[in-house]
Description:
About 35% of the residues lie in helices and about 20% in strands. With about 180 residues, the chain is an alpha+beta fold. It has a domain at about 105-175: 2-Layer Sandwich (Alpha-Beta Plaits), CATH 3.30.70. The strands form 2 sheets. A 5-stranded antiparallel sheet has the order 4-5-3-7-6. The chain has a two-stranded antiparallel ribbon with strand order 1-2. It holds the Pfam family DUF4283.
Amino acid sequence: xxxxxxxxxxxxxxxxxxxxxxxxxxxxxxxxxxxxxxxxxxxxxxxxxxxxxxxxxxxxxxxxxxxxxxxxxxxxxxxxxxxxxxxxxxxxxxxxxxxxxxxxxxxxxxxxxxxxxxxxxxxxxxxxxxxxxxxxxxxxxxxxxxxxxxxxxxxxxxxxxxxxxxxxxxxxxxx
Length: 175
């Protein structure tokens, strides 16, 4: 008897209700299958899909991002050598300078003693530094961030003014 009362108590405590659907009984009448729709071609599906940005008719990219130019590579700029440890790349001095020029107005940041998310630090930097141009924040691993400026004055102000703190934690800025 003890087992039955325990089972009954557990059944009473259960709040989940399960509804079991009955399977329809097979009938002798022939069933009519729904008409087959032709498969959608991937090209046709993409032509019909219109993004929100396209509906607005404007580009949501910032002008300075659109103006970013790619670094052109000449035939002698990158030399691939295959050694016993695998392939290695040799870059010409001119190509290295062109790559570095894109990042000359960039700093590396580290918030000391605190872990801060990308969105929070991005918003805090914009409100704290009030840049005249645009800044682009890139999240690196281990709570490091790379900040790229479009204006030299913003870059210099970031490096020379300070010390900077975010939520009471020191902000290390390095060129």
